[in-house]
Amino acid sequence: MKIFKIAIILCLLGSSTLFAQAIKTRTHTNFDEGWKFALGHATDYTRDFNYGNGNNLFAKSGESAGTAIAIDFNDKQWTNIRLPHDWVVGLPFRYVKNDDIDSHGYKPVGMLFPENSIGWYRKSFEIASVDSGKRFEIQFDGIYRDSKIWLNGYYIGGHFSGYNSVTFDITDFIRFGKKNVLVVRADATEFEGWFYEGGGIYRHAWLNTYDNLHFKSNGGAFAHAAVEDKDARVTIETNIENRGIKGATATVYNYITDRNGKVLAKGKEMPLDLAVRKDVKLSDDILLRNAHSWDLNDPYLYKAVSVIKQNGRTIDSVQTRFGVRTFTFDSKTGFALNGRKMKIQGVSCHQDHAGVGSALPDELQYYRIKLLKEMGVNAYRATHNPPTPELLDACDSLGMLVMDETRLLNSGKEYEDQFRDLILRDRNDASVFLWSIGNEEYVMQHTDIGKRIAQNQVLLQQELDPTRISTYAANMGNYFKGVNEVIPVRGFNYNLGGLDGYHAAHPDQPIIGTEVASTVTTRSIFTKDTVRAYVPDYDLTFPSWASTAETWWKITQDRPWFIGGFAWTGFDYRGEPTPYRWPNVNSHFGIMDMCGFPKTVYYYYQAWWTDKDVLHIAPHWNWKGKEGQPIEVWVNSNADDVELKLNGKSLGKKDMPRNGHLVWTVNYQPGVLSAIAHKKGRVIKAKVETTLSPVSIKLIPSKIKLMHDGQDAVIVNVIALDAKGREVPDAANMIQFDLQGSAEIIGVGNGDPSSHEADKCSDGQWQRSLFGGKAQVIIRSLKSNGKITLKGFSSGLKADEVTFQ
Ligand code: GAL
């Protein structure tokens, strides 16, 4: 009986293993866990684990003894970390009079700080002997920067870019059934940008396995759809290579499924006969009947599945998400999505966020895109570098257009390869509507060299992705020579005074505002403060090259041929303190702050970019000590008229100018400042009230269910309430946080652009003061199960806690 039972179990195991092998043709395994980290040194080999000190690293293959690259190196003292990991965000702020340090947010990294600028990572893992015979590949989606990578002491390659994804075939270097050690040395002594960039393996890492005969890693499948009335003709191009030791024959086919995996249409079987080390491109067209369009409010995604079959067995299969939609750029009528004319209501964004620097959990990408959508943004410009793939996933699935930008304009091998890799990686993303070949290359953008480089990049783009076109972010005003001569869509960075002249002279070139506005405001601060380096939270202040939000948006509305543009920026980011310097460490350009808390200008955009009822009064009404003094009150709304009242007494009714705002000057008295507006005959109301002092804390989580996958995250906003339960908009209390259960806090922030408080509390005592009444805590799950509770407390305030399921 016993034997019988065991036999059944074995039999079941056997069949399920066989089944698993039959369908598990390829794996894509997250490689974020189990890393060890230590800082090295850029100029002193004794503090850089002997790197570069006569150890034959590059003289003899596989030689690494005496360095941190060696398999048996003792890394017990190194810190345990999980990816994504940015070591720079945890460094203290440090004032140094130096442009690079200033533009990177006063973090002590770069050539002046060799002790903080080399990051070493080690990860041990095993691969079973039964798996030998497959191909193995390591994938990094972003390492800042100039990284060198070794497996088991063997140098497997270097990666110059701090922003592109990269893969390395590691098959030959694997020790099957034994410990393998992957080592990365990231070198952040040089910068690539003029904004905070972080340091380290700050995006995901993956281990990919597949058959010797396989779809190529980057660019292995490209699915794009041409709309034919109600149907769509989907072209699926596949790129297959044979890395085996003998020629291979197989068949290749594609099919399309809906988003739930239901097969909708199948392509033809294509024979394949591929010699050793050869690759081939195959293409097939599949008609998709009654295609469901991808659109901003209905971002429907299909899947194209591509299969390689050999001797009746599937040996490789990849899934490609794609959308059915049309983009039209017209020099007279502007931009249209699916034939519907629309202005690009865009924002430019850098990638960092409060608390976590450039190492964002995926959930935070979705959180940020959702915030932008609520504001009415329909397009995101990834400045000035390739985004992480998860940002594009969020835009694909939430419905946000993307202008995808390569780091710099250069057609030399390094940068041409970077642009190629970017296009091959992102051309399937439904959201990408425009490529950008670069930004403000002021040394050469107006020259013949600039023109030749741009021509090369435009042709490269058309070769790899004929379904889209390119722009370039030029700060050249009404000037045609150089890059602008060959770029399909002329990009204007600022200088909108040159717009009409340029359009008149070049009526056949569509024009987009690749970068506009650059209004500077500090959330919740309404007076200029040159000591703490704050600018008022009204749409008033901008650097010499820029404008208010209202100026550029009115220009856009008045010109049907102007496509719209990307306001600089959606969120504040670290670095580029403007117009002040230290103690200011963040930019003020954001329409939202570093945490995603809205500033006043947010409501300007929301009023004119959405059809929601918007009625917003700024400032708050806590001005103790200013009784009787005049205060400028701004009302942003899309109503027809607005009446303002102080403590019930009317301060006058005004018509709301289209694409404008209203201002009253009000002598301060504590109490209630209210607005009553009419919109198409309906009444809308809003108010700001003088509050009492804070008595309690309130935690507001972005969600209350957290997956125990070691990846999921939740964003918890923190505010203080008065005795009547009203949010206190100028509260500044220090809040402590205690987290119990299977998750960890990964960062805190408050949006104060001059705050030098730690984003990462390395002693485990997490805390952050409220700024303008708000702070934020970001939590990431661990892999074990269990209840998670976050408590926020502060002396003199009633604590609050939230439990996650
Ligand atoms: C632009 C530049 C951006 C940022 C911005 C600030 O010229 O492209 O990266 O520096 O100015 O206004």
From TrEMBL:
Where is each Glycoside hydrolase family domain found?
697-803
Q: What residue stretches are annotated with the DUF4982 domain?
A: 628-684
Signal peptide (from-to): 1-20
Domain Glycoside hydrolase family 2 catalytic, which positions?
Answer: 334-517
Q: Which SUPFAM superfamilies match?
A: (Trans)glycosidases, beta-Galactosidase/glucuronidase domain, Galactose-binding domain-like
Q: Which part of the chain is the Glycoside hydrolase family 2 immunoglobulin-like beta-sandwich domain?
A: 226-325
* Transmembrane annotation, as ranges: none
For the biological process aspect of GO, one term held by this record is:
carbohydrate metabolic process
**Which segments constitute the Glycosyl hydrolases family 2 sugar binding domain?**
115-184
Q: Which Gene3D superfamilies match?
A: Galactose-binding domain-like, Glycosidases, Immunoglobulins
A GO MF label: hydrolase activity, hydrolyzing O-glycosyl compounds
Family matches, as InterPro entries: Beta-gal/glucu_dom_sf, DUF4982, GalA-like, Galactose-bd-like_sf, GH, GH2_Domain-Containing, Glyco_hydro2_dom5, Glyco_hydro_2
Q: Which NCBIfam families match?
A: GalA
The protein depicted here goes by the name Glycoside hydrolase family 2 protein
